[in-house]
Inverse folding.
């Protein structure tokens, strides 16, 4: 599991679980009478909004950074992210005594920028429309000899995210029949596909950003073009990686897309019925289930709430939905 | 444990834990880097907002109702409550096949009235300023031969709420040095005082509604007069009961009061840092800790977040704090 092209197996996810033990939160598995009634199924929620840094990203980041060689740790790490991966890397780096530089878009939610800085990382802001974050990060890394920590295209990142799937099966006492997972580049969903080898995997994307859904349906990676704005800042990926595509396609995963309105309603549902703060992107899988886009009737289904880092004004707008 | 004047012991709380097993949620014990830093202690959160019906009240209500005799079940139950006890009784009654009538103030949060009705209870609204809810409930109960289920002045209710304390000790592996608990009539805090016999107990009340704080300090039950409005609708109790006073006073518990501003800040902190929806009254203990009103520096402390049933407009106002 040392190069980008190698895949990830259950043993890697188990090794990741050992590495993050005592550092990451073992988030609970929750259920809700109102949700079961609305979905006409037996729904179990994995609230990664309760994870350290407010999203699942800490799992993969800590797993990646704790596997670095001493010399690599010394050189520091660079990451680019709209916010959740940024926070995960920043906190993992702080805990491991590694210096971190994070390249973030200037329009990232304020709560995410402030929290990343709060974990002691150096922030480099860029303009999403005119600048290329990969180039900025690569340049920074080259000048400092630092390692770039990708947000999903890395076997250690995928294995780390997969620990959420392992936990679901341990907490439930069996594999859920279906697991529905919010999806940007497919790091979390492909990790969970490995961690839950006996479950049907469904990924949920915002409308316009449904590159994974299309790629899985068509059997080859497809890139989306100019999708326009979305409330789901965490899921604004235009193209998945061969690593995540290979895993999800190999597992026969499929995708659904959800509208902005469906996402807002899911955020409001989580407020009203679950008492959980879920960010728009983190609510995509819940939105898909509430909108009847995944057939869960009579089934045992795990729904991942992938993050809760949302500004108060965006949140308030969602509650009015 | 059959009359109002009898007290409650650890065996009663353990029996309650058996009765509610599989019905109530075993809420997780969570922690937060940001909270530990702010409080300079080791804080463990018991989020009863994640309990069924969105507050701890389901524990006591289910314990009380499941201990009714068959003839009593047949006659149905009556309760009065601004909302959280109402929902707890309504859901417990539904699960046990008992008919429930709930007397609620006409200015109760809409979310609480709707949820109570959603659990199948009959709602009787009254005017808080001109009508007496105890009299209305007693009259209803007399006419129907139904049992009145008090919100805190009942040994089964207290024992049921105490199960939250038992769980804290089991989940932590030891008793916390301090437990800070939101307090209205003292049902939850006295239950937790029994469930955590080795912890120092601190109750948190809204300013003006600090009857328990004063009663514990003075050694006799004191009633507060005309305290005016508070965001903490769940904690608007004017006077505690001999049962809850006896338990808390016997344990050497003490109280602190928190301002509306401190409560709002705690609700906003829970949104931003914990990703939990906590209602104003449910955030009173967190508010006390964040405001430095409880000495937790260097200590292991359990803070109960007692409920999360809050309307969107009230919540939004708190987020601006």
């Amino acid at each position: 599991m040392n190069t980008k092209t190698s895949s990830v197996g259950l043993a890697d996810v188990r090794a990741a679980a050992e590495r993050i033990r005592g550092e990451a939160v073992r988030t609970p598995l929750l259920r809700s009478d109102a949700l079961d009634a609305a979905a006409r199924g037996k729904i179990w929620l994995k609230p990664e909004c309760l994870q350290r840094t407010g999203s699942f990203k800490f799992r993969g980041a800590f797993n990646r950074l704790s596997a670095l060689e001493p010399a690599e740790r010394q050189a520091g790490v660079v990451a680019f992210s709209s916010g959740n991966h940024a926070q995960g890397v920043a906190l993992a780096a702080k805990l491991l005594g590694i210096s971190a530089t994070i390249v973030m878009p200037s329009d990232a939610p304020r709560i995410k920028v402030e929290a990343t800085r709060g974990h002691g990382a150096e922030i480099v802001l860029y303009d999403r429309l005119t600048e290329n974050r990969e180039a900025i990060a690569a340049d920074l890394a080259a000048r400092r000899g630092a390692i770039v920590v990708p947000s999903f295209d890395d076997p250690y990142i995928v294995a780390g995210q997969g620990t959420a799937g392992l936990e679901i099966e341990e907490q439930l006492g069996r594999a859920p029949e279906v697991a529905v997972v919010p999806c940007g580049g497919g790091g979390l969903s492909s990790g969970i596909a490995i961690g839950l080898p006996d479950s049907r995997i469904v990924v949920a994307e915002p409308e316009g950003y449904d590159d994974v859904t299309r790629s899985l349906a068509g059997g080859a990676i497809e890139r989306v073009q100019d999708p326009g704005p979305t409330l789901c800042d965490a899921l604004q990926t235009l193209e998945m990686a061969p690593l995540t595509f290979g895993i999800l396609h190999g597992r026969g995963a499929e995708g659904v897309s959800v509208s902005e309105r469906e996402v807002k309603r899911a955020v409001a549902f989580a407020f009203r019925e679950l008492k959980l703060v879920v960010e728009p992107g983190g609510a995509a899988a819940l939105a898909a289930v509430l909108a009847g886009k995944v057939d869960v009737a009579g089934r045992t289904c795990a729904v991942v709430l992938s993050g809760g880092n949302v500004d108060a004004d965006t949140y308030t707008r969602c509650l009015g939905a």
